[in-house]
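Run log // design_07
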């Protein structure tokens, strides 16, 4: 680790035509592929931070994944996601430090816009020093 900023992506396939079981199958397959990527520092299923009252332990959100990627690898990671999920609408959260932006992507081009947003967040955190 060279001290390069890490961008945390949380994303989900949000296709209303898919049932929970199908979304989870897509997510499980995608998670294995993401974990095999050299560009990804860490990947996992997203945990539900607001579980229902009375539930024990932690719960994962159906079809929702997280990945931590260094800034230099963001473009190739987003390209990978775009190739795998090009025809499926996605909801993405881009988090840099304590700043977070939510994006809905319906195309590969919109997905790649996340890279610019991550760079803008880094620049804002460093008052323009990282731009």
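design_07 sequence
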């Amino acid at each position: 680790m060279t001290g390069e900023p890490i961008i945390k992506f949380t994303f989900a396939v949000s296709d209303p035509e898919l049932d929970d079981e199908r979304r989870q199958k897509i997510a499980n397959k995608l998670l294995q592929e993401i974990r095999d990527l050299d560009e990804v520092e860490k990947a996992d299923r997203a945990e539900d931070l607001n579980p229902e009252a009375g539930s024990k332990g932690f719960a994962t959100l159906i079809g929702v994944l997280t990945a931590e990627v260094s800034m230099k690898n963001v473009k190739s990671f987003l390209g990978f996601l775009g190739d795998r999920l090009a025809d499926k609408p996605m909801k993405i959260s881009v988090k840099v430090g304590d700043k977070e932006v939510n994006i809905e992507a319906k195309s590969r081009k919109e997905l790649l816009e996340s890279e610019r947003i991550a760079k803008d967040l880094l620049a804002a955190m460093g008052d323009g020093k990282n731009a």
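The chain has one domain: 6-125.
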